[in-house]
Amino acid sequence: MMPVVVVHGGAVQVPEERAEITISGVCSAARSGYLVLEEGGSSLDAVVEAVVQMENSPYFSAGCGSVLNVKGEVEMDAIVMDGKTLGSGSVSAVRDIANPVQLARLVMEKTSHAFLTAEGASKFARSVGVPEVSQESLITEYSRMFWKKNLLMSREKMGTVGAVAVDKDGNVACATSTGGMPNKMEGRVGDTPCVGSGGYADNQSGAVSATGHGEANMRVTLSRLILFHMEQGQSAEAASDLGLAYLKSRLGALGGVVTVDPQGNWTSRFSTQQMPWAAAQNDTLHYGLNSGEHFRRSFSEQH
Amino acid sequence: MSAVLVVHGGAWAIPDELAEASVDGVKTAARKGFVVLRNGGSALDAVEAAVKSLEDNTVFNAGHGATLNIDGEVELDAIIMDGRTLNCGAVSSVKNIANPVSLARAVMEKTSHIMLTGKGANLFAESVGFSTVPTDTLVSEFERKEWERHKTYVTGVLEDFNTQWAHDTVGAVAVDSSGNVACATSTGGIRNKMVGRVGDSPVIGCGAYADNFSGAVSCTGHGESILKVTLAKLILSHVEQGESVADASQLALQYMGERVQGAGGAITVSPSGKWAATFTTQRMAWAAAENDVLWSGLDPNERKKENLN
């Protein structure tokens, strides 16, 4: 059994000029998550750390850098799930906080509920001392430019971020976070915070974090679908491919996932042309962006 | 291909004083929904009609008669799904709407999204002409009293959360004469829930799911437990593996009990017209309309039969 952290930065087209920084971002997130595991942290700690990093980076559509809704405002969704207990925490349409994935974890750990939305989520955040940040601090030049372009129906997408991990005790976990769909209607909630769609984790089968067209992922409950295949004996890779193939054949939609099983086998699969991803396991950092890419670097090379 | 409609009015320890009204309510809803099917309407139209009837009935925790959150307000969740296209519409934490299931349908049919929440959902409702109703008209005397009574509990009792608290979500599943299946679920959520708490009901695959290839499900019970096991999808995965709708429902509910100590209920229908109403709580008010027969039940293993006139 080899602990591993796998992250993705959204199954979307990454513009040429952002390719390098995006890859650097997922690599950094995977390594940070893995460091947590090395220091004895749980898979839950690791996925939250990895996603927090990507939320803090302005180069991903989660937390800072989130795409804007039709009114030019930031509304964020996130989920965490603990494969040991099947417990999950989700927030949807939450505003003015830096790290929705952390709030999602607090929902799971500090309330008897699993999902808080909108004003209720903000009220809870205040009650547990999560600092409010200005809308402006979450909006980047890029997301604003994107918003203006999309007002003209350019229909480009920007990605969700996510991570899965398995720790030395064989516990799996997942986390997913997003600003949602560019120019979405106010209050639109996608797959991300919906258990079974944006993510699912179960110590008996594995963990998945999904990205792509939110509504399509929801209609097939993509994460849960992949794990059903794994329960029936498929490998992480085969199960992920089956799930993505079904998404395409049934709905004509494309997407991407990162998947791990309790033994530490992992995969990053996507039917779009690009999905920035990275995985850290043993002494190796794996990563890629374009379909078919799989680069490797040893950690010891870095130091 | 004969059409079938099944409805439920919540899986929980329904007290005797609510029992008769609950069973009457589900029977009325089943009749209303079945008329739609009899007249050649779709499964989607039928489940909407049935759930609207349950929302309008103050005996159930949905629409009128919905339970109050900790601030004494009504926040509603609902979902509707079309098994033919896998299209879905859902709303969470929406306020002052008498029929959230119809709003959920409007999300499905009039937007490119599936789920709208909170203020955004209400703005949408306004934009497509849904009238808002004052909170007072949605709040029943019973719920107001219960809220006041439970305010004193909130600081302490979270054990036995499962069994003691009301879980009377409502829902319906149907298959029409074309073999299309559909489902709908609607709820006010858990009494004294935190502001903005969303349960399983509007979460696709958890509170409900419909797929012409396997069937349609609507769930009720302890929402947080249903979310943990994605109950609706779990039931249908057993159906896909060859189990009957009854066995699939039983297996899944049993698993939920064993794995996460959660109790609940589900109504399930297959594309060929087989149906089941299954629960692991003390009671579940349910009714099913098929051919000329109206079935109903409340206690475990109870199945009453009468003419559907």
From TrEMBL, chain A:
<keyword id="KW-0068">Autocatalytic cleavage</keyword>
<dbReference type="GO" id="GO:0004067">
    <property type="term" value="F:asparaginase activity"/>
</dbReference>
<keyword id="KW-0645">Protease</keyword>
<dbReference type="GO" id="GO:0008798">
    <property type="term" value="F:beta-aspartyl-peptidase activity"/>
</dbReference>
<feature type="binding site">
    <location>
        <begin position="211"/>
        <end position="214"/>
    </location>
    <ligand>
        <name>substrate</name>
    </ligand>
</feature>
<comment type="similarity">
    <text>Belongs to the Ntn-hydrolase family.</text>
</comment>
<dbReference type="GO" id="GO:0033345">
    <property type="term" value="P:L-asparagine catabolic process via L-aspartate"/>
</dbReference>
<keyword id="KW-0378">Hydrolase</keyword>
<feature type="binding site">
    <location>
        <begin position="188"/>
        <end position="191"/>
    </location>
    <ligand>
        <name>substrate</name>
    </ligand>
</feature>
<dbReference type="GO" id="GO:0006508">
    <property type="term" value="P:proteolysis"/>
</dbReference>
<dbReference type="GO" id="GO:0005737">
    <property type="term" value="C:cytoplasm"/>
</dbReference>
<feature type="active site" description="Nucleophile">
    <location>
        <position position="160"/>
    </location>
</feature>
<dbReference type="InterPro" id="IPR000246">
    <property type="entry name" value="Peptidase_T2"/>
</dbReference>
<dbReference type="Pfam" id="PF01112">
    <property type="entry name" value="Asparaginase_2"/>
</dbReference>
<dbReference type="InterPro" id="IPR029055">
    <property type="entry name" value="Ntn_hydrolases_N"/>
</dbReference>
<dbReference type="InterPro" id="IPR033844">
    <property type="entry name" value="ASRGL1_meta"/>
</dbReference>
<feature type="site" description="Cleavage; by autolysis">
    <location>
        <begin position="159"/>
        <end position="160"/>
    </location>
</feature>
<protein>
    <recommendedName>
        <fullName>Isoaspartyl peptidase/L-asparaginase</fullName>
        <ecNumber>3.4.19.5</ecNumber>
        <ecNumber>3.5.1.1</ecNumber>
    </recommendedName>
</protein>
From TrEMBL, chain B:
<feature type="binding site">
    <location>
        <begin position="197"/>
        <end position="200"/>
    </location>
    <ligand>
        <name>substrate</name>
    </ligand>
</feature>
<dbReference type="InterPro" id="IPR029055">
    <property type="entry name" value="Ntn_hydrolases_N"/>
</dbReference>
<protein>
    <recommendedName>
        <fullName>Isoaspartyl peptidase/L-asparaginase</fullName>
        <ecNumber>3.4.19.5</ecNumber>
        <ecNumber>3.5.1.1</ecNumber>
    </recommendedName>
</protein>
<keyword id="KW-0068">Autocatalytic cleavage</keyword>
<dbReference type="InterPro" id="IPR000246">
    <property type="entry name" value="Peptidase_T2"/>
</dbReference>
<dbReference type="GO" id="GO:0006508">
    <property type="term" value="P:proteolysis"/>
</dbReference>
<dbReference type="GO" id="GO:0004067">
    <property type="term" value="F:asparaginase activity"/>
</dbReference>
<dbReference type="InterPro" id="IPR033844">
    <property type="entry name" value="ASRGL1_meta"/>
</dbReference>
<dbReference type="GO" id="GO:0005737">
    <property type="term" value="C:cytoplasm"/>
</dbReference>
<keyword id="KW-0378">Hydrolase</keyword>
<feature type="site" description="Cleavage; by autolysis">
    <location>
        <begin position="168"/>
        <end position="169"/>
    </location>
</feature>
<dbReference type="GO" id="GO:0008798">
    <property type="term" value="F:beta-aspartyl-peptidase activity"/>
</dbReference>
<feature type="binding site">
    <location>
        <begin position="220"/>
        <end position="223"/>
    </location>
    <ligand>
        <name>substrate</name>
    </ligand>
</feature>
<keyword id="KW-0645">Protease</keyword>
<comment type="similarity">
    <text>Belongs to the Ntn-hydrolase family.</text>
</comment>
<dbReference type="GO" id="GO:0033345">
    <property type="term" value="P:L-asparagine catabolic process via L-aspartate"/>
</dbReference>
<feature type="active site" description="Nucleophile">
    <location>
        <position position="169"/>
    </location>
</feature>
<dbReference type="Pfam" id="PF01112">
    <property type="entry name" value="Asparaginase_2"/>
</dbReference>
